[in-house]
Amino acid sequence: MATSSLKRRELDQLLLVAKHYLELAKRHAKRHQGVLNKTIDAVTGNHVAGKTGEGELILAHAGSCAIRLSTMSEVLGSQQRYSFKYYQNMKRKSCLTKQQLIIDINANLDEYLHDLLRDHVAHEENAKDIGPDRWEILKVLTVGHVLSELESCATKIENQLKAGITAGTI
Protein backbone atom coordinates (compact mmCIF):
# COMPACT_ATOMS: atom_id res chain seq x y z
CA MET A 1 0.00 0.00 0.00
CA ALA A 2 1.37 3.44 -0.91
CA THR A 3 2.41 5.89 1.82
CA SER A 4 -0.38 8.32 0.94
CA SER A 5 -2.93 5.50 1.19
CA LEU A 6 -1.63 4.60 4.65
CA LYS A 7 -1.72 8.24 5.73
CA ARG A 8 -5.28 8.65 4.47
CA ARG A 9 -6.36 5.43 6.19
CA GLU A 10 -4.73 6.56 9.46
CA LEU A 11 -6.44 9.95 9.25
CA ASP A 12 -9.82 8.38 8.42
CA GLN A 13 -9.54 6.06 11.43
CA LEU A 14 -8.45 8.87 13.74
CA LEU A 15 -11.41 10.99 12.63
CA LEU A 16 -13.87 8.13 13.14
CA VAL A 17 -12.54 7.45 16.64
CA ALA A 18 -12.49 11.17 17.53
CA LYS A 19 -16.11 11.53 16.41
CA HIS A 20 -17.05 8.38 18.33
CA TYR A 21 -15.63 9.77 21.59
CA LEU A 22 -17.25 13.15 20.99
CA GLU A 23 -20.58 11.44 20.39
CA LEU A 24 -20.19 9.42 23.61
CA ALA A 25 -19.49 12.64 25.52
CA LYS A 26 -22.50 14.40 23.99
CA ARG A 27 -24.78 11.41 24.58
CA HIS A 28 -23.73 11.21 28.22
CA ALA A 29 -24.15 14.99 28.58
CA LYS A 30 -27.75 14.72 27.32
CA ARG A 31 -28.54 12.38 30.21
CA HIS A 32 -26.75 14.62 32.72
CA GLN A 33 -27.42 18.15 31.48
CA GLY A 34 -26.59 19.76 34.81
CA VAL A 35 -22.94 19.02 34.14
CA LEU A 36 -22.88 21.19 31.00
CA ASN A 37 -22.74 24.43 33.02
CA LYS A 38 -20.02 23.23 35.38
CA THR A 39 -16.46 24.33 34.80
CA ILE A 40 -13.62 21.87 34.34
CA ASP A 41 -12.28 23.04 37.68
CA ALA A 42 -15.60 22.31 39.41
CA VAL A 43 -15.87 18.88 37.80
CA THR A 44 -12.31 17.79 38.55
CA GLY A 45 -12.25 19.46 41.96
CA ASN A 46 -15.07 17.24 43.21
CA HIS A 47 -13.37 13.93 42.43
CA VAL A 48 -14.19 11.07 44.79
CA ALA A 49 -11.48 8.42 45.07
CA GLY A 50 -12.46 5.17 43.36
CA LYS A 51 -15.42 6.72 41.54
CA THR A 52 -15.81 8.48 38.21
CA GLY A 53 -18.37 11.27 38.32
CA GLU A 54 -20.69 12.10 35.43
CA GLY A 55 -18.73 15.20 34.49
CA GLU A 56 -15.44 13.34 34.75
CA LEU A 57 -16.69 10.70 32.32
CA ILE A 58 -17.80 13.35 29.84
CA LEU A 59 -14.41 15.08 30.13
CA ALA A 60 -12.61 11.74 29.73
CA HIS A 61 -14.45 11.14 26.45
CA ALA A 62 -13.70 14.73 25.40
CA GLY A 63 -10.03 14.17 26.22
CA SER A 64 -9.97 10.98 24.14
CA CYS A 65 -11.51 12.90 21.24
CA ALA A 66 -8.96 15.70 21.68
CA ILE A 67 -6.03 13.27 21.57
CA ARG A 68 -7.16 11.97 18.16
CA LEU A 69 -7.87 15.44 16.78
CA SER A 70 -4.49 16.67 17.93
CA THR A 71 -2.76 13.75 16.24
CA MET A 72 -4.68 14.45 13.04
CA SER A 73 -3.71 18.10 13.19
CA GLU A 74 -0.05 17.15 13.52
CA VAL A 75 -0.22 14.68 10.62
CA LEU A 76 -2.02 17.21 8.43
CA GLY A 77 0.44 19.93 9.43
CA SER A 78 -2.46 22.32 9.25
CA GLN A 79 -1.70 24.62 12.14
CA GLN A 80 0.96 25.73 14.53
CA ARG A 81 0.62 24.19 17.99
CA TYR A 82 0.00 26.69 20.78
CA SER A 83 3.14 25.39 22.54
CA PHE A 84 5.31 26.53 19.61
CA LYS A 85 3.47 29.74 18.87
CA TYR A 86 3.42 31.13 22.41
CA TYR A 87 6.30 29.42 24.21
CA GLN A 88 10.00 28.88 23.89
CA ASN A 89 11.55 26.18 26.09
CA MET A 90 8.22 25.98 27.96
CA LYS A 91 8.47 29.63 29.01
CA ARG A 92 6.11 32.25 27.65
CA LYS A 93 7.70 34.25 24.84
CA SER A 94 8.97 37.57 26.19
CA CYS A 95 6.75 39.61 23.85
CA LEU A 96 3.62 38.19 25.56
CA THR A 97 2.05 38.72 28.93
CA LYS A 98 0.09 35.90 30.50
CA GLN A 99 -3.11 37.92 30.01
CA GLN A 100 -2.38 38.52 26.29
CA LEU A 101 -1.72 34.83 25.78
CA ILE A 102 -4.95 33.78 27.52
CA ILE A 103 -7.01 36.31 25.54
CA ASP A 104 -5.49 35.16 22.22
CA ILE A 105 -5.92 31.45 22.90
CA ASN A 106 -9.50 31.94 24.12
CA ALA A 107 -10.27 33.95 20.97
CA ASN A 108 -9.06 30.98 18.90
CA LEU A 109 -10.12 28.13 21.14
CA ASP A 110 -11.40 25.95 18.30
CA GLU A 111 -7.82 25.95 16.94
CA TYR A 112 -6.10 25.08 20.21
CA LEU A 113 -8.52 23.27 22.53
CA HIS A 114 -7.68 19.79 21.25
CA ASP A 115 -3.97 20.41 21.90
CA LEU A 116 -4.63 21.99 25.30
CA LEU A 117 -6.75 19.03 26.39
CA ARG A 118 -4.33 16.47 24.96
CA ASP A 119 -1.40 18.03 26.79
CA HIS A 120 -3.41 18.33 30.00
CA VAL A 121 -4.53 14.69 29.86
CA ALA A 122 -0.92 13.63 29.29
CA HIS A 123 0.36 15.99 32.03
CA GLU A 124 2.64 17.29 29.31
CA GLU A 125 4.97 20.18 29.99
CA ASN A 126 3.66 21.03 33.46
CA ALA A 127 6.87 22.87 34.33
CA LYS A 128 7.68 26.54 33.92
CA ASP A 129 4.91 28.72 32.36
CA ILE A 130 3.13 26.36 29.99
CA GLY A 131 1.40 24.05 32.49
CA PRO A 132 -0.01 26.77 34.75
CA ASP A 133 -1.06 28.87 31.72
CA ARG A 134 -2.82 25.88 30.19
CA TRP A 135 -4.70 25.19 33.45
CA GLU A 136 -5.64 28.88 33.71
CA ILE A 137 -7.35 28.60 30.31
CA LEU A 138 -8.96 25.19 30.82
CA LYS A 139 -10.23 25.46 34.40
CA VAL A 140 -12.84 28.14 33.63
CA LEU A 141 -14.32 26.43 30.57
CA THR A 142 -17.67 24.79 31.05
CA VAL A 143 -18.21 21.22 29.94
CA GLY A 144 -20.78 22.46 27.41
CA HIS A 145 -18.28 24.94 25.98
CA VAL A 146 -15.63 22.22 25.69
CA LEU A 147 -18.00 19.96 23.75
CA SER A 148 -19.08 22.80 21.45
CA GLU A 149 -15.49 23.86 20.71
CA LEU A 150 -14.38 20.25 20.12
CA GLU A 151 -17.21 19.82 17.65
CA SER A 152 -16.08 22.95 15.82
CA CYS A 153 -12.49 21.73 15.87
CA ALA A 154 -13.50 18.30 14.53
CA THR A 155 -15.41 19.96 11.68
CA LYS A 156 -12.41 22.15 10.77
CA ILE A 157 -10.02 19.20 10.78
CA GLU A 158 -12.45 17.05 8.78
CA ASN A 159 -12.73 19.85 6.20
CA GLN A 160 -8.93 20.08 6.02
CA LEU A 161 -8.77 16.33 5.46
CA LYS A 162 -11.36 16.51 2.68
CA ALA A 163 -9.52 19.44 1.07
CA GLY A 164 -6.26 17.48 1.17
CA ILE A 165 -7.91 14.45 -0.42
CA THR A 166 -9.51 16.61 -3.12
CA ALA A 167 -6.22 18.38 -3.81
CA GLY A 168 -4.41 15.04 -3.98
CA THR A 169 -2.03 15.89 -1.18
CA ILE A 170 -3.36 13.09 1.03
Description:
This protein has 170 residues and is an all-alpha fold. The chain has one domain (3-167). 70% of the residues lie in helices and 2% in strands. The protein has helices at residues 3-31, 40-45, 54-76, 82-85, 98-107, 109-121, 130-138, 143-167; strands spanning 87-88, 91-92. Strands 1-2 form a two-stranded antiparallel sheet. Helix 1 (3-31) packs antiparallel against helix 3 (54-76), helix 1 runs antiparallel to helix 8 and helix 6 (109-121) crosses helix 8 (143-167). The protein is globular and about 50 Å long.
List strands and helices in order, with pairings.
Blueprint: H1 3-31, H2 40-45, H3 54-76, H4 82-85, E1 87-88, E2 91-92, H5 98-107, H6 109-121, H7 130-138, H8 143-167
Antiparallel strand pairs: 1-2
Low-confidence stretches: none
Q: Kindly name the structural category.
A: mainly alpha
Quickly count the helices. Answer: 8
Q: Termini, distance in Å? A: 14 Å
What is the gyration radius calculated from CA atoms?
17 Å
- How would you state the average pLDDT, rounded? 91
Number of domains: 1
Proportion in helices:
over 70%
Q: Rough shape? A: globular
Amount of beta strand? under 5%
Strand order of the largest sheet: 1-2
Strand-and-helix sequence, N→C?
HHHHEEHHHH
The biggest sheet, with number of strands, parallel, antiparallel or mixed sense and barrel status, is: 2 strands, antiparallel
Number of strands: 2
Short description, anyone?
The protein has 170 residues and is an all-alpha fold. It has eight helices and two strands, in the order H-H-H-H-E-E-H-H-H-H.
